[in-house]
Amino acid sequence: MTRLELQAIDKFYFRNPESSFCFFIPEFGQFRGMVAERSICMTPQRLAFVMLPGESAKLVPSAEYVRLLQVSIGVEFLLKEASMHGSPFVSLMSLNELIPGHEQLILACALHLFKFSLAVDISPERVLQPLEASIISLLAALLGSSSEVLQPVESDTTSHSSYVQMALTYMEDNLAKEICLSDLCKVCCVSSRTLQVAFKTVMNRTPLQVLHELRLTQLRGLLLQGLEVGRACESVGLLHSGRISANYKRMFGELPRHTRSHRVLTIEPVGLV
User: Fold this and answer.
1) Residues 142 and 226 occupy one common structural domain
2) 15-69, pLDDT tens digit by residue?
3) Which is nearest to 24 in space by CA: 43, 41, 7, 48?
4) What is the pTM of this model?
5) Rounded to whole angstroms, how far apart are CA atoms 211 and 79?
6) For residue 81, what are the contacts with CB-CB under 8 A and spacing of at least 6?
7) Containing domain of residue 95, as a range?
């Protein structure tokens, strides 16, 4: 577990080792950015983002000072523990959707780990190991149940469609803002599991995947109107980056700058004297 302190910086890049899974919970300050192909936002005391082995992140702080905790765990060890709590076929990425709602326990353990790791007069067996075991046990239990989280369950199809529509309306009205899964759950007044099932049933994608696609679609509309790429990205809550350009090309078959360059130009008629 590591505490990161970022002060007076515009951008921060880093890469997660191939052998570890990690996640971040902020203590102070806010930022936004990209982790692999996923847009992320950071609010204190809530899960900021999850990083799979080998993934890179680009963070842009929106405050002069940002402090966050990084919790890293060996992949093989975590998956082995998870298999003891449920299905052996688990996805680390599912933790991105499962951790919300459990941050306070993880944060409390992480803060105590950081505090006691600096002390020289404590017994690791009595303090550190139980705290580490609490975090591992929680994550393993979440992963062990993850095979059920995104499986459609028998429910009212009308309710599913209603939740999806409410979430989509909120997304469309707030594209330029930071939107997290918990924000969508509050709007729909449902749990993260219920909302995940609704989106999986109706759209066969997660809410955050749909949000990203919606932002790219809106981005294309602005580019066709002639808006500069950077400003267009900002207007829909995206950071202009190579990753965004790659996602855009995968979805529309061309780069954002090409969409803008061949936009239809309207020529105003000139009156004759």
Assistant:
1) no
2) 888 888 888 878 888 788 888 777 777 777 776 777 888 888 888 888 888 888 8
3) 48
4) 0.48
5) 29
6) 136, 137, 139, 140
7) 2-149
